[in-house]
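Researcher: Sequence recovery benchmark, item below. Answer with residues only.
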């Protein structure tokens, strides 16, 4: 890899990614604070399976790793950035598999409460995780093109943040309380997920606006990432209403008990 000189302009651009990663950490921990972290400390968290703790650990670790990686890149510590990147691949892979398993388990737990509503809602976490997986693979595939790589990593993380953003809506609607979390309540209509998805999309817009102001144009990675996220969000409602989706959800429920 050819060494590069970090000019003040490039250094400033690098720290933009640090700030965006910091925002991701705040959203992730803020969204899960009252429904997980504070309940865990207070002994009021109700876990239906140990994987919920693993899911929370992996999700939180990912945002912290992203922050660390953007910080190392901004400082020019590219060797350490690459070394930790190998750990990031393992973490992302585990996050996808555990995330899918957790989504299926949560659906299975809620089916006795609301039946088809839980089956339909399964599409929300699965599309969010799929968006992360697609964009993460794109980021790894562009590891030798840093301008594409770092933007795909950000957008992949924004797809994951939809779950944390949804927790704010849950708390606003229910008031929270000891032991309260979305996984124990009846599933909400799939359409309600579009608000959280739109907020995650606005994070992409923030990156695009920064590009436009600093580079004079928007990088194509944001356009590609935005299309992937919006497309996955757009199919949620119509696809979740089909008999094919309900049959698919039923087949998945056999593995989630």
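Model:
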């Amino acid at each position: 890899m050819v060494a590069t000189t970090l000019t003040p302009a490039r250094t400033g651009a690098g720290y933009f990614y640090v700030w965006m990663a910091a925002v991701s950490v705040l959203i992730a921990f803020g969204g899960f604070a009252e429904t997980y972290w504070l309940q865990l400390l207070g002994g009021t968290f109700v876990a239906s399976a140990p994987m919920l703790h693993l899911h929370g650990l992996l999700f939180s670790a990912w945002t912290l790793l992203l922050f660390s990686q953007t910080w190392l890149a901004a400082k020019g510590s590219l060797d350490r950035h690459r070394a930790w990147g190998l750990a990031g691949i393992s973490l992302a892979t585990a996050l996808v598999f555990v995330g899918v398993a957790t989504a299926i388990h949560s659906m299975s737990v809620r089916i006795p409460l609301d039946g088809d509503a839980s089956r339909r809602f399964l599409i929300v976490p699965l599309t969010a995780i799929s968006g992360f997986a697609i964009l993460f693979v794109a980021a790894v595939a562009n590891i030798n093109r840093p301008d594409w790589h770092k933007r795909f990593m950000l957008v992949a993380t924004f797809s994951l943040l939809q779950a944390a953003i949804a927790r704010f809506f849950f708390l606003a609607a229910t008031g929270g309380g000891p032991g309260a979390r979305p996984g124990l309540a009846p599933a909400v209509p799939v359409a309600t997920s579009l608000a959280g998805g739109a907020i995650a999309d606005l994070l992409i817009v923030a990156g695009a606006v920064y590009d436009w102001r600093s580079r004079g144009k928007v990088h194509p990675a944001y356009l590609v990432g935005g299309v992937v996220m919006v497309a996955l969000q757009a199919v949620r409602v119509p696809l979740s209403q089909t008999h094919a989706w309900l049959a698919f959800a039923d087949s998945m429920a056999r593995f989630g008990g």
